[in-house]
């Protein structure tokens, strides 16, 4: 199970940020290049979280809010 990721598109690249894998909240950021069909892992977010909002603002990917587990 994988739920709660934030998704946005910048210049034909789909970014998937955070989420929940059924066991823990994720800090991962991955992108899918629609032209090449390849996935790439990027630098992780500082705080693992799910149900985030993701959007593009002035050409930059912004990830905000979400649920953070304080284990």
TrEMBL record:
PANTHER family linked to this entry: KELCH PROTEIN, KELCH-LIKE PROTEIN 28
Question: Keywords, A to Z?
Answer: Kelch repeat, Repeat
Tree of life domain: Eukaryota
**Protein name in UniProt:** BACK domain-containing protein
Repeat among keywords: yes
Concerning InterPro entries, the annotation shows: Kelch-typ_b-propeller, Kelch_1
């Amino acid at each position: 199970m994988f739920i709660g990721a934030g998704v946005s598109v910048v210049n034909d690249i789909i970014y998937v940020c955070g989420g929940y894998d059924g066991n823990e909240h994720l800090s991962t950021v991955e992108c899918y290049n629609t032209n090449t069909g390849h996935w790439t892992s990027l630098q992780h977010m500082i705080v693992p979280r799910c149900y985030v909002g993701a959007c593009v603002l002035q050409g930059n990917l912004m990830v905000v809010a979400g649920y953070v587990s304080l284990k």
